[in-house]
Structures are given as structure tokens and as C-alpha cells.
Write a structure and sequence with these properties.
Layout lengths: L1 H11 L1 H30 L10 E8 L4 E4 L3 H10 L3 E15 L5 E8 L3 H5 L21 E4 L1 H6 L11 E4 L2 E8 L11 E6 L15 E6 L5 H10 L1 H8 L5 H7 L2 E6 H6 L3 H32 L1 H9 L4 H37 L14 H29 L2 H7 L9 H36 L9 E7 L8 H16 L4 E7 L9 E7 L11 E8 L3 H5 L3 E4 L7 H5 L1 E5 H7 L12 E4 L11 E7 L15 E4 L14 E8 L7 H11 L5 E6 H8 L1 H35 L1 H9 L4 H30 L15 H27 L3 H7 L1
Parallel strand pairs: 4-8, 5-7, 14-19, 16-18
Antiparallel strand pairs: 1-2, 1-9, 1-10, 3-4, 3-6, 3-9, 5-8, 6-7, 11-20, 11-21, 12-20, 13-14, 13-17, 15-18, 16-19, 17-18
Helix pairs in contact: 1-12, 2-10, 2-12, 2-13, 3-7, 10-13, 10-15, 10-22, 11-14, 12-13, 15-22, 15-24, 15-25, 16-20, 22-24, 22-25, 23-26, 24-25
Length: 820
């Protein structure tokens, strides 16, 4: 009965119902869409059995200014052999490999893992036994576990695929397992897992290049595990110490970090997502305020009806139940429409969201999101439905309502207070959203203004990896890239070509200990860890990294190149602060620290180049050393890379040369996969993707808030003008000018908006401090941004008030008095 009555009442006011439902749907849908991302990325448990016991293990060494760095073979062996806090642990290193032997060579995502990796995560093979402990020993047969997707595509979903062989990086490997569908740890689209091979009796203790994942023993907490593992570090030095001694561990303050694996997977993206959820929460509050104003106006128009029902015996509880039933019905209807908007919004977020947001591919509208939407719809309905109840519980007069037909009870200042308060609240929330979006806009433009240290426009990049079986030593690798560069250099439009282990803004570089000749260290001290890359001649010219002093690599003098090094300006500033780059020329350093009696070759600084941003535009340029990639002096054999990014400087559109560059490479080796073909401008844009994504969503939210706020203000001022028609007619009949009437109405609107702006500014000063981690180059309380926000809102408020003011100024006094 109640449901039928509610639907009938709402059906009598179709315009009100449609506007209210759509307004609520906008707020509820935005919240449901963002909550689906928050839940899928931050709150949803990892899809592994007992995932609450999975942790990531890393390390701090404050004495070396190193924080949250990865694990070594020796730390893994120590923790696995001597820890009681860990039930199981594994090392994992994501990468890429060549998959050949099919119709066309492919470069696919891979991971090198210790044999217990799948058992640690609690993942069972879909087919086959998977890795065994012996697969990680040096003498083991090469094996591989493939993803479910690769099993379907490359192996045709063959039920007898176990035992078949794949050629991975030039090595024939036997397939021992097919991972379950959807499993892709440690990175999306991981296609193969290879066993990490090392001698368990002599694990490497100086190379911290592996991520570590572990499963806590039952009943063991994160803090107790951290304390136990930190206490085992001196034991590691005793058992496996080669590069690291107990004294080095003590002097560096090295400790173990243990944190939930979900936190490690998610990283720092939580700051972005919580800010976005708070933002759309404000949108919902603004939408509720708008609907509450509509509801309040509609309720005031029904005062005579309520008076009659009261006179016939209806109690206040019955009237309240009617109001709340209508508001809840509107809230649920808004939730249903909003859920449809959320489905579309989630698809858009997954499709266009930045790759830097982890687990985004897992996001969807599931049961938790549906439950959240229902609760949010009920909350919204109750929230705006309580406004007319509070208003009329205080000010409803039965006698006045019956005598005046509903007008008497709406006279006086009190009748406007609720509506004005709601509009002021909308304006205040709009101020907060506009301030946040303004700060993100400033951050985005500050990022765009950062000089990356190289010229991204007109630069094509692609990645090539040589198989060890075909290119065994540095001379063969150097000769291959020399021939390829010569072929590419003669293509039309090419002005320079080079290659390196990494390019700016991708963060791909090695960290190695270095001994600088002018800065001797004491026995037992750790060498300085410095980032370094391997590059070919032409690398600096292709990237247009400026040469500040000396020279870069000369391909006509290979012998001289092998003993030279080029360094960045930041490295010169670290060791010789305040000196010109020329004073670093001729200085020498060694890769690693020689043992007593050991002779290691020296590298001489031949050139100094400008700084480049390798870890993102928000990070300082690193202190880089560039080594030539190829044969190195005796004692440094093996220090070369087979996987390089080729960089091609063009005079036209870079991607227009992609096919020609591919053909030049395949002319030297037709079996080589070519990956990551893109422009350097794409790399730059990707480095700013998270900031631009956050900025776009905040700007959209602010625009919606501005529109809803201005519509709310316009509606209230228009309604007040309609209520004051007689008063305005009297004023004009007594000689008030039309301009005076218009100014009075605009002033009233600006007063309400001004109160909202004042409250909003105070709230924005507090709220934007929560965005500090997302901002770059601008303070959370940036005064120009706040000034622009205030100006914008007051102009919008003036415009929203002006149109009702014009209507008021055009009122005919005689018609107004006659009508009343």
C-alpha cells in the first residue's frame, strides 16, 4: 500500500522525479565506479590462498642511504634455512625473453623464480607438476612453466603439452607446468616462469636484484618476522659472506623490512585512489543538497495537503514515513541508474587508466560494489529526505497552513534558511573540489615544464635482445649493434642512431659498487653504489643529451673506448662540488673494490654530459656512469648487455620509420624479436600518466560540482524571486528602479555564495594538505590557485543570480499586485 502511494505521488511530479533521479545517479554512479577501483586495487585480498600471510621482504641500509632495496641469493638462503617465522619463501625477478621457433619471433614477459615460488603463493598448476627443488641447481635440465594464455596460443591448448619444448632465449626448455588461468604474478601478462639457478652452497651475497616473497608461519606477525630476519643478517655474513662482512652489515645499519604482499603490489597508488574517492563523495553530497532543495520546495507546496491529513488524524510519524519513503525510493532509483553509469565508468577507467595503477585489470563491478551502491543509495535517500522533516518539525503550523492555503507557514526568514544553507554547503564543497583540481592542473603543467635532459620529439625507440647461445661474448654483441646502427643510419630521415641498456624516464639501469681514486675507503667499508648503463656510440647524439666537457665514444677507436667512461653532471657535482665539468676529465674509478693483491682495470672519465631524469620527472637526475657496451679491459669480462634499447633520431614522424628499422635489424638476424616499438614522446607521456589521470578525474569532478552548485544557486534565487513577486511589485510601484531590484537579487545570491566560499576556503586549506604527496612544484595552499578558485566561483554565482535578477527587474507591478 505504501509503495503504491509513493509511486503515485512521484508519478504526479514527473519533472521533479526525473531531475532528482538523474542528479542522484550522477553522484552515486561516480562513487560506485571509483569504489570499484579502490576495492579492486586496495581492499580486495590477493587471489591466493591465505593471502593475509603473504609478505614481501626487502632491506634498508641507512648508512649507505639505501632504502627498501631488494634481496640477494644469500639473504634468501639464510632466511629459508634458519628462520622459523617463514613457512616458505621465494625469489622472483620480472623480465622479458625471446621466444623463437614459431612462425615469428616474439618478445614476451617472463619471471625468473626459485622453485618454491608457486608453493609460496599457494598456486597449484593447471597442468603438470611445475618446478621441483632440483630445477634450481646448476646441473639441472632447462625447464619452463607457461601461462594459461601462452598454453592456449603457442601450444594450441594441447592436453599433452607437458614435456614439449620451447626455445626461450636460445635455450631449449622442457615444459613442466601450465599456470592456472588468470595467474600472472609478478607482472601483468607474464607468459613464462624460468627457474633461478644458483649453487645453494655458495649463493651470491652482494647482488640485491631479486624481489622476495614469503609466507609467514601460522601465528607469526609481521613485526616479529621482521625482528627475527634482521637478527639473521650477521648469520648470513658468517655462512655466505663473500662481499659482505658482519662489520659492513653493522656499519651500514642494514635491517630487514617485512610488509604485507598486498601493500608491496599496490605501492603508493593508495594516495591517488583515496583522494579520488573523497572527491566523488563530495559530488554525492552536492547532489544530495540539490535534491534536498528540490524536495524542500516540493514539500512546501504540499503544506495544505499535509495540514488536511493532520486535521483528519494523521500523526507526525505517518507524515515522516511518507517523506522518507519517497526519498528512499528516489535514492534507490538513483542507485539503479547510477549502477548503469558505474558499469560504463569502470570500463572506461580500466581501458584508459594508466598502466602504473596495479591490479587495474582485476577491477570490476562485483558483489561488494553492488552492496556498497545499495547502502550508498539508502544513505543518500535518508540524507536528503531528513531535510524537509527537520524543517517542518520545527516550523509547521496547522492553523496557518489551513487558513493561508500553505503560504502563511512559509513567510519570514526561517523559510529561506534551510535552502540557503544547502546552497552554501554546495558552494563550499565546490570550492574544495575546484582547489584540488586547480592544484593538480598546476602540478601537471609544472611536470610538463621540467626539462627531461634529452629531446623526446623525433625519437623512435625499440628493444632488441640477443640470445646468449648466438652472441656469446661482448665482441659479438658490439659487432652486431655496430652493423645494425650502420644499416639504420642510411635510412632516409635518420640523423643519429644509438643503443643503451635504458632510456630516460624508464628507470632501467644497474647499481654497482665503485671505488673513486680520489676518495679512498678504509678496509671493510662498502664502496659507493652508483647507477650505470651500457651504451653504444651514437647514444648521446640520438637522444640529444648535451656534451658539457670532453668527448663521447668514438667508434673509430674501439681500444680507447673500452677504458673510457662518460659521466653525468650530477656525478661530478657529488665528488667535485662547485667545480666545472672540465675538472672531472681524466679522473679514474674502478667498478667494485679490488681485493688485497687483486689488480682491476681503471676507467677514465673522457666526457661529461648533461643530467637526465631516469626515474621520473619528479625525481632528481641520478649520478650516472655510462660504459661502452662491448669488449672491456681484462678483469671486467662479462660486463656487457645483450638487451639494448635502440634509439633513432628522425627528421619526420618517428613511427613512419618503424618498418624500415625492423627490416634493418632482421637483415642482420631474422630470428630476433623486436619489442616496445614506440616514440620517446610516448615514454614521457607515460611517465606523467598517473598525474594526468588524477588531474582529469579531479577536473571532471570539479566541473560537475560547479555545474550542480550553480544550478542549485540559480534554483534557489529563482524560487525566492517567485515568492517575492508581490514584494517586488510593491517596491517598484513605490518607485524602485529595475536596476535596484536586479542588484538586490544578485546581492542576495552573492551573499549566499560568499558564505559558502568562506567556509569552502577554510575546508580546502585543510583538505588539500592530504594531496601533498600527489603534487609537484606547487604548495597545497598555493594562493594564486585559491584566488582563481574564489574568483571563478563568485563569477559563476553572479551569473547564476543575474538571470533571476533580470526576471525580477522585468516584473510588471500592476500585474503582480493584481495576481496576489
Amino acid at each position: 500500500m505504501l509503495r503504491t502511494t509513493v509511486l503515485r505521488r512521484l508519478g504526479r511530479s514527473p519533472a521533479f522525479t526525473v531531475i532528482a533521479v538523474l542528479t542522484l545517479a550522477l553522484g552515486i554512479g561516480a562513487n560506485a565506479a571509483i569504489f570499484s577501483v579502490v576495492y579492486g586495487v586496495l581492499l580486495r585480498p590477493l587471489p591466493y590462498p591465505g593471502s593475509e600471510r603473504l609478505v614481501a621482504v626487502s632491506h634498508d641500509a641507512p648508512g649507505l642511504e639505501l632504502y627498501d632495496f631488494d634481496s640477494s641469493q644469500a639473504t634468501y638462503s639464510t632466511y629459508r634455512n634458519f628462520s622459523s617465522a617463514l613457512e616458505e619463501s621465494a625469489l622472483v625477478s620480472p623480465g622479458t625473453v625471446n621466444l623463437t621457433g614459431g612462425d615469428r619471433p616474439e618478445r614476451i614477459d617472463s619471471a625468473e623464480v626459485t622453485p618454491g615460488f608457486f608453493a609460496t603463493l599457494g598456486v597449484a598448476m593447471a597442468r603438470g607438476p611445475g618446478f621441483e627443488e632440483k630445477d634450481g641447481l646448476p646441473e639441472a635440465e632447462p625447464v619452463v612453466v607457461v601461462s594459461h594464455a601462452l598454453w592456449q596460443t603457442r601450444l594450441g591448448g594441447d592436453p599433452e603439452a607437458i614435456g614439449r619444448r620451447l626455445r626461450v632465449d636460445g635455450v631449449e626448455r622442457r615444459v613442466v607446468g601450465v599456470a592456472p588461468a588468470g595467474f600472472d604474478h609478478p607482472a601483468p601478462e607474464t607468459a613464462v616462469w624460468l627457474p633461478l639457478v644458483f649453487d645453494p652452497a655458495a649463493p651470491n651475497d652482494g647482488n640485491f636484484n631479486w624481489r622476495s616473497v614469503a609466507r609467514l608461519a601460522p601465528g607469526v606477525g609481521v613485526e616479529s618476522a621482521r625482528a627475527e630476519l634482521s637478527g639473521l643478517l650477521p648469520r648470513m655474513a658468517e655462512e655466505y659472506g663473500d662481499n659482505l662482512s658482519a662489520g659492513m652489515i653493522r656499519d651500514s645499519g642494514m635491517t630487514t623490512l617485512v610488509k604485507p604482499l598486498r601493500d608491496e603490489v599496490v605501492g603508493d597508488v593508495g594516495n591517488v585512489l583515496w583522494v579520488l574517492l573523497g572527491t566523488v563523495g563530495m559530488i554525492l553530497l552536492i547532489a544530495c543538497a540539490n535534491v534536498a532543495n528540490l524536495f524542500l520546495v516540493r514539500a512546501e507546496g504540499r503544506q495544505r495537503e499535509m495540514a488536511v491529513r493532520t486535521a483528519l488524524g494523521a500523526g507526525r510519524g505517518q507524515l515522516a514515513t511518507g517523506f522518507l519513503a519517497e526519498s528512499v525510493a528516489l535514492g534507490l532509483a538513483g542507485g539503479v541508474v547510477g549502477l548503469g553509469m558505474a558499469f560504463a565508468g569502470v570500463k572506461a577507467l580500466v581501458a584508459f587508466g594508466p598502466e602504473t595503477i596495479p591490479r587495474l585489470h582485476e577491477v570490476g563491478v562485483g558483489p561488494m560494489v553492488l552492496a556498497f551502491t545499495v547502502l550508498l543509495s539508502l544513505f543518500a535517500g535518508l540524507l536528503f529526505g531528513c531535510v524537509p522533516l527537520l524543517r517542518f518539525n520545527r516550523g509547521f503550523s496547522l492553523v496557518s497552513a489551513l487558513k493561508e492555503g500553505g503560504r502563511g507557514s512559509t513567510t519570514g526568514r526561517e523559510r529561506h534558511l534551510a535552502r540557503n544553507s544547502l546552497v552554501a554547503a554546495q558552494v563550499a564543497l565546490a570550492v574544495v573540489l575546484l582547489a584540488g583540481s586547480g592544484l593538480m592542473l598546476r602540478s601537471f603543467w609544472s611536470l610538463r615544464a621540467v626539462d627531461p635532459g634529452f629531446e623526446p620529439d623525433g625519437l623512435l625507440t625499440l628493444r632488441v635482445s640477443l640470445d646468449e647461445s648466438d652472441y656469446a661474448d661482448g665482441a659479438q654483441v658490439a659487432d652486431f649493434f655496430r652493423r645494425v646502427q650502420e644499416r639504420i643510419a642510411v635510412l632516409p630521415g635518420v640523423s643519429a642512431v644509438g643503443a643503451g641498456t635504458g632510456i630516460p624516464l624508464e628507470g632501467f639501469r644497474s647499481m654497482s659498487g665503485h671505488f673513486v681514486e680520489d676518495f679512498p675507503i678504509q678496509p671493510g667499508e662498502l664502496p659507493d653504489l652508483l647507477p650505470n648503463l651500457r651504451v653504444t656510440p651514437g647514444y648521446f647524439e640520438a637522444l640529444e643529451i648535451p656534451l658539457l666537457a670532453g668527448r663521447t665514444y668514438d667508434p673509430s677507436d674501439p681500444q680507447r673506448m673500452s677504458g673510457d667512461a662518460v659521466v653525468s653532471r650530477a656525478l661530478v657535482e657529488r665528488y667535485w662540488p662547485g667545480r666545472p665539468p672540465t675538472e672531472a676529465l681524466g679522473k679514474r674509478f674502478q667498478l667494485g673494490v679490488p681485493s688485497e693483491g687483486e689488480e682491476r682495470p681503471w676507467s677514465t672519465i673522457a666526457g661529461v654530459v648533461g643530467d637526465v631524469h631516469f626515474d621520473g620527472l619528479t625525481e632528481d637526475p641520478p649520478e650516472l656512469i655510462y660504459y661502452v657496451n662491448g669488449p672491456l679491459p681484462e678483469g671486467m669480462n662479462g660486463w656487457f648487455a645483450r638487451t639494448l634499447t635502440v634509439t633513432v633520431r628522425t627528421s619526420g614522424p618517428p613511427l613512419g620509420l618503424a618498418d624500415g628499422v625492423r627490416e634493418a635489424i632482421w637483415a642482420e638476424d631474422p630470428n630476433l624479436p623486436i619489442a616496445n616499438v614506440r616514440t620517446a614522446r610516448d615514454v614521457v607521456d607515460r611517465s606523467m600518466a598517473r598525474t594526468s589521470f588524477t588531474m582529469v578525474l579531479l577536473v571532471i569532478a570539479a566541473a560537475v560540482a560547479l555545474v550542480l552548485g550553480s544550478v542549485g544557486l540559480y534554483g534557489v534565487i529563482s524560487y525566492l524571486v517567485s515568492l517575492r513577486t508581490q514584494e517586488i511589485g510593491v517596491r517598484m510601484a513605490l518607485g524602485a528602479a529595475a536596476g535596484d531590484v536586479a542588484r538586490m537579487v544578485v546581492r542576495q545570491g552573492l551573499t549566499v555564495a560568499g558564505i559558502g566560499v568562506a567556509i569552502g576556503i577554510a575546508g580546502a586549506f585543510a583538505a588539500t594538505r592530504l594531496m601533498k604527496a600527489l603534487l609537484f612544484g606547487v604548495a597545497p595552499t598555493d594562493l594564486p590557485t585559491f584566488g582563481a578558485v574564489v574568483t571563478t566561483l563568485l563569477l559563476v554565482a553572479a551569473a547564476a543570480s543575474w538571470f533571476p535578477a533580470r526576471r525580477a527587474a522585468a516584473i510588471d507591478p500592476l500585474r503582480a499586485l493584481r495576481h496576489e
